[in-house]
Amino acid sequence: MRQELWSWLIADAGLRYDHHSVSGGEWVPQGGLTFLLPSDIVVKTIVSKGFRNPTICELYMYRPANADLEPERLMNYELSFKQHLPGGRMGYGFNVFYIKADNLINTQMVDGRPLNVNTGKTENSGFELLFDWMANSNLRFNANYSFLHTSQKLTAAPKNKLFLGATWQKDRLTLNTGLQWIDGLYTSTSDTSTENYWLWNLTATVRVAKQLAVFAKGENLLAQHYEVNAGFPMPRATVMAGVQINFF
Description:
Elements: E1 2-6, E2 9-20, E3 24-37, E4 41-52, H1 56-60, E5 72-84, E6 90-102, E7 105-110, E8 113-118, E9 121-134, E10 139-150, E11 160-170, E12 173-185, E13 195-209, E14 212-219, E15 238-245
Antiparallel strand pairs: 1-2, 2-3, 3-4, 4-5, 5-6, 6-9, 7-8, 9-10, 10-11, 11-12, 12-13, 13-14, 14-15
């Protein structure tokens, strides 16, 4: 539900009910306020509950399955600020967040073997910075940075993440590139070392007709060796090409 209270204030509210044959029922509410301020400034506040039942794979399929897992629950509190500068060619923003979670599911080593377990109470906090700039009618830059602090180790959740991107478009040709830095990522809660790496992707697209385009894409062009989850190395440099058809 969304309601405009005044020209400068909008209220949002939502409610979901989740029923599971094993863990029972759960109410999942969320709500927030949006402030439309002068100088094209938008401020948002959000309070929301998160809830997730264990998947069939986490419960029963193969090691590290654990049939005694309990659902994950969390409360999220977030404040964000965004502004587009006069002319609309440049914008920036930031947001801060705090998450208090219970029973997050993680894979840990138990008696020398991996096992899915509920890790108890966890507190996460951090912030994000956003930037967007249209240099001219053909070239646009965007960047974002996020910092995450966790009260305990979490897999696949980097402490620092930076992204720098650019899009150039001229007639039928579009070039899109992005450089991402990942730092302080745990691939396993039982490991004290972290992953640190750079990823560079590049995509070229040519619109052949109104509904037809061909593209070539390169991923991890720096050929970085890295893992997001322990034991599952990600591909090195990968190049692919294809055709896009739009029927609408």
